[in-house]
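In response to reviewer comment 3 from the previous cycle, which asked for concrete evidence that the modeling workflow produces usable outputs, we include below a single protein chain processed end to end. The sequence was submitted unchanged, and the resulting structure tokens are shown without manual editing.
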Amino acid sequence: MAFTGSCHCGAIAYTVDEDPPTKALQCNCSMCRRKAPLHYFTTPDKFRLETSRDAFATYRFNHLVIAHHFCKTCGIAPFAEGNGADGKPMVEINLRCADGIDPEALEIQFYDGASR
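The workflow returned the following structure tokens.
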């Protein structure tokens, strides 16, 4: 069963063609400490952007391998795209923006991004 998500105003919306996740990754890098996303990683073939790419701006930092997308209207960052640690293309979903997923019910894995 697919799950969906969006930014706050709905200008960015997506569908992920897999079951809603039960686990997420929490990072402490300089970006994540400020945004507080709960990360879930999928492959580009399972991710479908339902809205125009014109709705978001992109920010890259550190190694510049991840495109952090955020809404030009509301500022919320529902997903990012780039290459994973293995070099393969990936899409990162901010589960705080996913519909019907309770962040309190997720099993959280900690990632020490500040030390990388």
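Residues 64 and 82 are 9 Å apart (CA to CA). We consider this sufficient to address the reviewer's concern, and the full set will be provided in the supplementary archive.
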